[in-house]
Amino acid sequence: MNQSCSNSIPIASPSSRRRFLWDVGSGFAGVALSAMLAEQGLLADDAALSQVGGGAKLQVLHCPPRAKRVVHLFMAGAASHIDLFDHKPALEKHHGEPSDFGEHVEAFQNGLGPWMKSPFAFRPYGESGKYLSDVVADLGEVVDDIAFIHNMVGKTGVHSAATYLQATGFQTPGYPGAGCWVSYALGTLNENLPTFVVLPDHRGYASNGPKNWGSAFLPARHQGTAIFPERNPPIADLFAPPDSFVQPESDAAGLDVLNRLNGLHAAGRGGDSRLEARIRSYELAARMQLAAPDALDISGEPKHILKMYGLDSIPSEFSSEINPVEETVYFSRKCLTARRLLERGVRFVQIWSGNDNGFPRRNWDSHENIERDHGPLARGMARGTAALIKDLKQRGLLDDTLILWTTEFGRMPSTQGSKGRDHNPYCFTNWLCGGGIRGGTTYGPSDEWGYKPLDRLHPTTVYDVHATMLHLLGIDHERLTVRHNGIDRRLTDVHGHVIDEIIA
């Protein structure tokens, strides 16, 4: 059954009253009809209308939503699908034998050594019996809530371009991040906090930095707001320094003057969204000074919640080597912070694991040693992510919260050196969980090596994932467009289809 958004009503199959209202409301005179129905209370029992918040571009959603908020987990550096989620018995059987791909392979560096099995053991988990690596064993507790996609393909093995592609839908800068599009379409659910919040790796930004969540040609107010929960202060420039002569009263008065001056200036420059965004940012900053400290303070969380996230006993210092304790503490803190932001009305939260390229590795770019790098990162990611899923579920929030796990590309099934893996843009894994997702499913198998999709003619792309995400939010990806430089731009470019097979 095709679950794509549509404004047509099949004659052969009767529509429900709610389906009829949605289909009609999405078409001609939809705005007027929706307003009339709302005034008459005919849609009062339809929770879907509440999905559109303040400042939303869409007045009426294109189809009934299954989710109203998103958590986007991004593993920077290229996480290895065949060492985490995509079990390959063939690599175990032929480990150490010369690799034969049966075709010419374009390696990023020199990573075409012998076949290499994962250094981590795989075991089945959940009722679905999904095989997971030991380093993500914590996800076994929630694996039946997850839909895995194993036939993802990219367009490049270059980190910066591939990161742009997964974050914005394009390989080059100048395009809005996925969270920007969601903010633009659906608006805010809380005027005191940003609509789109980014929680970077505690060590710094991944490839491209803030350009991954910049608003580009969308109104500037839709850009992501970077917050570092572990830093003091977590939000740059929100508060005056403690030893500053600036007092709360004078700060408020100064912001008021700036707002009035900017308002006068903006009155004659209606086409420039930057000034409007600056005014809005001042107003939001004033409100955030009250709301943000509470949202970011985890000290009042119950002990059992902190224990679930692995935050009940935090060491005063960490090893200089990459280690699972540090990765768990910092990633889990971001996950717990995300839950607190979501329940306060933040629409889109993006969580990053791994910072920009450097050595020794502090990201997923494991050219030298998969076990050394992936082990700690994966254990930390899995602990925090599993806790987030369980936490949202027990609070009744998972049903309308969509979680998307991604990375820029995968890694080769052959060795690089003796213990590492080279880039593999030809195949990798994404997974989704929560709002509208059919849990306990696996879609789109890779080949026996994990080198390319088994069905090379029908791979899955980021456009398909983004189309599915928007669909679950009630948005038709082909109808959410912005005219820019003479072209109707959209998150999915000119591609993409909804992956019906993973929708419940």
- Portion in strands: 5-15%
Number of domains as seen in the coordinates:
1
Radius of gyration: 23 Å
Kindly identify the CATH topology. Alkaline Phosphatase, subunit A
Topology (elements, then pairings):
Blueprint: H1 17-25, H2 30-39, E1 69-75, H3 89-93, E2 122-125, E3 130-133, E4 146-152, H4 159-168, H5 178-186, E5 196-199, E6 225-226, H6 248-267, H7 273-296, H8 303-309, H9 324-342, E7 348-353, H10 370-394, E8 401-407, E9 410-411, E10 423-424, E11 428-434, E12 441-443, H11 462-472, E13 482-484, E14 487-489
Parallel strand pairs: 1-7, 1-8, 4-12, 5-6, 5-7
Antiparallel strand pairs: 2-3, 4-11, 8-11, 9-10, 13-14
Helix pairs in contact: 6-7, 9-10
